[in-house]
Design goal:
The chain is mainly α and 204 residues long. The chain contains 3 helices and 2 strands.
């Protein structure tokens, strides 16, 4: 406060700074509100995905248990080595109020099943059901990553909003008020001096 210049020029500068800070506050608040909406929308999607994934995983596990009961666990484990195939993923992003939210796409891969003649119908079903889990699992991972990024950005934006609302803008307003009061005081003193000088000149 000791470095505050009590001049009209300084007052004009403070008013410009305050208006910019208020504009920044409005924009950041809008950004925060949009991110919060996106956060809860993503959270809702995650809850739905988890529910669906849980049901499908349970179905796949039961199918695998039936296959193991018929063929034996060692035989199923041996055959599983012949069903494995690589997956191709493509990751891009989409922009949500400056936040790069990940998008994970699974490219179709033709599966080659070695030893397919040894497969039972039950094992074939179990393998198919487990493979169907992958797209949902990747989508769940994608949404979880997005949720984390959104949460981090919401925290950062909230800190900046609070800093402007409770620290920067009130400080600028306070400094404006101090300079305004001081300038008004100087004007009154100057006016009083002029009256005294005028009165003395008239009495001569």
């Amino acid at each position: 406060m000791a470095r505050l210049k009590l001049t009209r020029m300084e007052l004009l500068k403070l008013k410009v700074k305050r208006k910019l800070a208020e504009k920044g506050y409005r924009l950041l608040k809008q950004k925060r509100d949009t991110l919060v909406m996106e956060f809860f929308g993503t959270l809702k999607e995650i809850q739905a995905l988890r529910k669906g994934f849980g049901q499908n995983f349970s179905k796949a596990q039961k199918a695998m248990q039936r296959a193991q009961a018929l063929q034996g666990q060692p035989d199923v484990a041996r055959l599983a080595l012949g069903t494995a195939s690589g997956v191709e993923l493509e990751q891009t992003t989409r922009n949500v109020m400056g936040v790069q939210v990940p998008i994970i796409d699974l490219k179709p891969v033709e599966h080659q099943w070695y030893g397919y003649y040894e497969f039972t119908v039950e094992l074939d079903e179990a393998v198919a059901l487990h493979r169907e889990l992958l797209p949902d699992l990747l989508k769940l991972i994608e949404k979880q990553l997005a949720l984390r990024k959104l949460a981090d950005e919401i925290r950062k934006t909230k800190r900046r909003v609070n800093s402007l609302e409770y620290i920067a803008i009130p400080r600028l307003k306070h400094e404006e008020k101090l300079i305004t009061l001081k300038l008004e005081e100087l004007e009154r003193e100057s006016f009083s001096r002029l009256k005294v000088i005028k009165a003395k000149s008239e009495n001569k």
